[in-house]
Amino acid sequence: IGTAELIDGKAFAARIRGDVASGVARLKGQGIVPGLAVVLVGEDPASEVYVRNKGIQTREAGMNSWEHKLPAETTQDALMAKVADLNADPAVHGILVQLPLPGHLDADAVINAIAPGKDVDGFHVLNVGLLGTGQKSMVPCTPLGCLMMLRDRLGDLSGLNAVVVGRSNIVGKPMAQLLLGDSCTVTIAHSRTKDLAELCRRADILVAAVGRPRMIPGDWIKPGATVIDVGINRIEEDGRTRLVGDVDFDSAARVAGAITPVPGGVGPMTIACLLANTLTACCRANGLPEPE
Ligand code: NDP
């Protein structure tokens, strides 16, 4: 029985953050400071943690960071006005509205109000369309991080069978677009998919983005496959709270060729890619060459 190689997202993300920090330092030499504004509505505890971490890492990379905290009862008009202010502010190169928004707000309308060039999450319908047609866009951070790890491990992805489990707009769909762009044969699975186990067993690349703890066991995995576990699930086990992925790590690691751990896999890459997107947005806004 083989033992999978661990894909160290933490170390990879640290390298990306280092590259971003160098890029930021070069821009500062020209008098330009990249800036990221994050808008948080309400008091979702997980979102507060994410937003805090984003702020810390943004500042560590040498960029300006602003956190706009709005009360849960904020109106659609007030939120749209906040986005309009940030669109108009030349010091702000990236705008991120933390999702999910409270139920009374129309998230699509808010996201589509962000200036597409500042949409560092890549969720604006224009960026979605650009990605889908293979044009230069802002690429959503989580799938971008997954793609970077896959390219790093596998090199050329062309012709590989990729199965993406999950079809959300923020992970599953853009992940599938990126893999298609790298010439994988892509299947997107979801809650109505038949014979999911069989489908997964054909995957050279398996990306799990479901939100169900340890849903995918080792015997759904093709021997030697590369497994990217996007899931972050908080569970109670042995009297304590643990974070686990959508893949049953222990059984999967005996079959896969390589696998991302949770935590320490996709999670840190997501924030690193957010910083990279902010740097890219700043370069584009200033007509400067983009970092690779
Ligand atoms: P969503 O809830 O938006 O989407 C989940 C998807 O999983 C849906 O498409 C759903 O299908 C599908 N699904 C649900 N149950 C099953 C099932 N039994 N079999 C097959 N497919 C199923 O989640 P997100 O995409 O936003 O997030 C997915 C996971 O990734 C979560 O755990 C989230 O916390 C994590 N995440 C991690 C990030 C990171 O930085 N590492 C960033 C973003 C998310 P259907 O469409 O039919 O309902």
TrEMBL record:
EC number of this enzyme: 1.5.1.5, 3.5.4.9
Keywords tagged on the record: Amino-acid biosynthesis, Histidine biosynthesis, Hydrolase, Methionine biosynthesis, Multifunctional enzyme, NADP, One-carbon metabolism, Oxidoreductase, Purine biosynthesis
Pfam families linked to this entry: THF_DHG_CYH (PF00763), THF_DHG_CYH_C (PF02882)
Reaction(s) this enzyme catalyzes, per UniProt: (6R)-5,10-methylene-5,6,7,8-tetrahydrofolate + NADP(+) = (6R)-5,10-methenyltetrahydrofolate + NADPH; (6R)-5,10-methenyltetrahydrofolate + H2O = (6R)-10-formyltetrahydrofolate + H(+)
Positions with a binding annotation for NADP(+): 166-168, 232
InterPro entries assigned: Aminoacid_DH-like_N_sf, NAD(P)-bd_dom_sf, THF_DH/CycHdrlase, THF_DH/CycHdrlase_cat_dom, THF_DH/CycHdrlase_CS, THF_DH/CycHdrlase_NAD-bd_dom
Domain named Tetrahydrofolate dehydrogenase/cyclohydrolase NAD(P)-binding: residues: 140-284
Residue span(s) of domain Tetrahydrofolate dehydrogenase/cyclohydrolase catalytic: 7-121
SUPFAM superfamilies: Aminoacid dehydrogenase-like, N-terminal domain, NAD(P)-binding Rossmann-fold domains
Pathway: One-carbon metabolism; tetrahydrofolate interconversion
Subunit annotation: Homodimer.
Homology family: Belongs to the tetrahydrofolate dehydrogenase/cyclohydrolase family.
NCBIfam families found in the cross-reference section: PRK14186.1 (NF010783), PRK14188.1 (NF010785)
Function description: Catalyzes the oxidation of 5,10-methylenetetrahydrofolate to 5,10-methenyltetrahydrofolate and then the hydrolysis of 5,10-methenyltetrahydrofolate to 10-formyltetrahydrofolate.
Name of the featured protein: Bifunctional protein FolD
Gene name linked to the record: folD
